[in-house]
Design goal:
Blueprint (H helix, E strand, L loop, with lengths): L17 H12 L4 E10 L9 E10 L7 E9 L4 H6 L2 H24 L13 E5 L6 E5 L6 E2 L9 H24 L1 H8 L12 H22 L4 H9 L3 H11 L5 E3 L8 E6 L2 E7 L6 E3 L2 H11 L2 H25 L4 H4 L2 H27 L18 H4 L8 H16 L4
Antiparallel strand pairs: 1-2, 2-3, 3-5, 4-5, 6-8, 7-10, 8-9
Length: 421
């Protein structure tokens, strides 16, 4: 793709008129600036974005004096132009939920936070300059955090301890804001938690997911049978990898007893890490299309089983669980609430035991996608205007490598050894 394809951005994105972009620039720089031109920078790598189309561009603005020094680099995340892809993957729902999070949920949470004197406030999200939602031309215009030295780790590799600590610190800060607001402003928190809606695990979506779930279960069973033949892990997985498990996932996302506004899709692709001398020191959460109100354990268990290796878990699993809670409780206390009352260590441990299966179940989908090399990622340029089954597009097959099988099989092994399934 290049800027030569269209004379104006509105040729690709109808909402991005010159006038609208001028408004964005004026709001950002707080002076009268007119949109002048744009420049294509790049797009998401193959396999890095399945539910959206993403490009990076520079936007140039000029003042009344003709000064062109006002430049911003942004990420344009848009609903797929392919009608078939859009309806097959229910893109309109995912975009609506994310836009609702950015425009109606997060601002309220941040307003609550602004009334507190937090030494380390939750600021681990990209700035949003513009959104539009109509089901056909949906778009989210975000700051490009790569210019701030944020970037992705290699998704095919399990993350190291430093990445895990930064990730869990980020999630703990995000979740703590919900716990404090729920404690101190329960009516307002309940209101915003009902604005976002479930986009993945719901009775209405079983027909959409059913055949794909069967494929995922088959891949997982194949991996465990080959890596741990004739073992209790095969037996336990066969009991676990059944259609009824989807109903258990539905129950999990509906449980709001200790509900927080959670990310919902907490795997490597949706974290941008800031590196100093090659080490991650901070992170930004992106892609809130699966945002929901549910137990925080859904986020932390999903990351654990989708993004870490068996070696990492054997050495640091309990340490990381404790570290997450230490940050969470410290943040809750900083907001003026009592962590022992709003989410005690015992309550947390009960939910770790109760809901870690959720992370394993979601990892059955994430792990095969995670280990795919970019050249084998699925082509999402779906022609036509007919709805298709996602199993026809995401044609995942049993792992080709021992490393891939071990990654999947060891997730199962850990869950079984811990008594989670």
């Amino acid at each position: 793709m290049s800027s030569k394809e269209f004379s104006t951005l509105s040729g690709m994105y109808p909402v991005l008129t010159d006038e609208k972009l001028s408004e964005v620039l004026c709001d950002l720089f707080r002076e009268n600036i007119a949109f002048a031109r744009w420049e294509y920078v790049g797009e998401a790598g193959k396999g890095d974005s399945y539910l959206s189309e993403i490009i990076r561009i520079k936007i140039f603005g000029k003042t009344d004096c003709g000064d062109f020094k006002h430049i911003i680099q942004v990420v344009l995340k848009s609903i797929p132009r392919s009608v078939s892809r859009r309806i097959t993957f229910r893109s309109d729902e995912f975009f609506k939920n994310e836009i609702l999070f950015y425009t109606e949920v997060l601002p309220v949470m941040l307003k609550f936070q602004s009334t507190k004197n937090m030494s380390e406030p939750f600021d681990n999200y990209p700035k949003v300059f513009l959104t539009h939602c109509d089901g056909e031309n949906d778009i989210i215009c975000l700051e490009d955090a790569t210019v701030l030295s944020f970037g992705h780790p290699i998704r095919q590799e399990g993350v190291n301890l430093e990445h895990c600590r930064v990730t869990y610190r980020t999630l703990a800060k995000f979740h703590a804001l919900s716990f404090a607001m729920s404690d101190q402003e329960p009516k307002e928190f309940n209101r915003i938690s009902n604005i976002i809606f479930e986009t993945y695990y719901d009775e209405r979506l079983w027909n959409w997911y059913e055949t794909f779930w069967k494929r995922l279960c088959g891949i997982a069973i194949d991996a465990v049978e080959k890596e741990y033949p004739n073992s209790k892990y095969v037996e336990k997985l066969k009991e676990f990898a059944v259609p009824e498990r989807y109903k258990e996932m539905i129950k999990a996302v509906q449980d709001r007893k200790n509900g927080v506004i959670s990310h919902g899709d907490a795997w490597t692709n949706n974290f941008l890490y800031k590196y100093v001398n090659g080490r991650p020191v901070d992170a930004i959460l992106i892609d809130f299309q699966l945002a929901r109100c549910a137990s925080p354990v859904l986020d932390i268990s999903y990351f654990m089983y989708s993004c870490t290796t068996q070696d990492m878990r054997e050495k640091h699993y309990d340490e990381l669980l404790k570290y997450y809670y230490e940050v969470l409780s410290s943040q809750i206390r900083g907001y003026g609430s009592d962590p022992d009352k709003v989410y005690s260590w015992d309550s947390y441990m009960e939910e770790v035991k109760k809901y870690s299966f959720f992370g394993l179940a979601f990892s059955l989908e994430a792990t095969p996608h995670m280990v795919l090399p970019p050249e084998e990622a699925f082509d999402m340029d779906i022609k036509g205007d007919k709805k298709r089954n996602i199993d026809e597009i995401w044609t995942l097959a049993p792992f080709k490598t021992k490393e891939g099988r071990q990654r999947e099989a060891n997730n199962v092994k850990h869950c079984v050894d811990r008594g989670y399934i």
